[in-house]
Amino acid sequence: MAEGDHAEAQIELEVFRFRPDDHPEPHFDRYQVPSRHDWVVLDALNHVKNEVDATLSFRWSCRMGVCGSCGMMVNGKPVLTCATFLEKFLPGPIRVEPLDNFPVVRDLIIEMNDFMRKLQMVKPWIIRKQEKPLAEGEYLQTPAQLAEYKQYSMCINCMICYAACPVYGLEPAFIGPAAIALAQRYNLDNRDQGKTERLRILSQEEGIWACTLVEECSAVCPKGVDPAGAIQRYKVTGATEWWKSILMPRSNG
Amino acid sequence: MIEGTANQNPRYTKYHPKWHRAKIPIFWWIHKLPHIRFIARELTSVAVALYACILLFQILAVADGPEAYARFLAWLKTPFSVFLHAVAFLFVLFHSITWFNLAPKALVVSLGNKRVPPVAIVALNYAAWLILSLAISWILLK
Lengths: 253, 142
What we know:
Chain A is 34% helix and 13% strand. By secondary structure, chain A is an alpha+beta fold. Chain B has four helices and two strands, in the order αααββα.
């Protein structure tokens, strides 16, 4: 397929293709791409799109691990394709598929509305019972208070943890790793006062209690967020709040 | 059902019959080592349940009088029971150790401005396990 300009080392890509208007069933297309030591899988896909087969569809934007758009399964593992070098897979072939556990719209593009809905559901923003007037200035925070939640704020919504989570695959109602980690990002922020509102969402069966601690979400996270840790921590909070509601039904947490 | 609940049949999306949804096979967990380890840990809870059942049967035997209890003790000494206990013990040990090692994930404790290191949390769990085991064996064996 690919005509190299010169005798450059090549590596084979096996790319998942799904174009429902042409073929009802998905299949794999093979492409030879230059195996350059500074190329990532995303570079190879862009090479295919520009030089070989313009019908190939995939998402990408920043190509530097910040936007979270280019998550795909590479040889069965969910990764950011902008941060995964071709060299790692020599001599090839490299199998590129859309993220597991999501419906596929076309080729490598998954449908993410379910995640977006769940993300909104956990209210990932600072909730104040009463906003203080602008004249009083900003809400100040010490480095120690920032450190409490900073790790969870590194999440870029790439959904790689959802692709790695067998619970989400088997029980799609599960709120899922990133959304719960982001809820914790705000729960642990000293400026936030929305813990009780989030508790009602997170302590459902489809919330933290669906998690069986496979820990793959944390293993694959490209940003070191540790969603599994966030969920287990919240299980302690959820259980404590439940006991409080039983023992002290009149207090409003 | 409470507001904002996640349960709205997420397998079905109106007006989108053309999306491809991969099916998850029953043996989805056989391909990756972390998944196999996870399933193994889950299965060890069967041994934990087995221990609990044996304890319940023991209490029933006590309630049924000295003869029933003697019969129960005789059953405990059979090779089958000894084998069952040996296997269950290994599983429960694996279960307990992995459980204790995961404790710092759930327990994040701060003393003043300093976070208690995860190793200390694990160590405290093991210490509590040891002390309780010693206390119980002291009560049983004295």
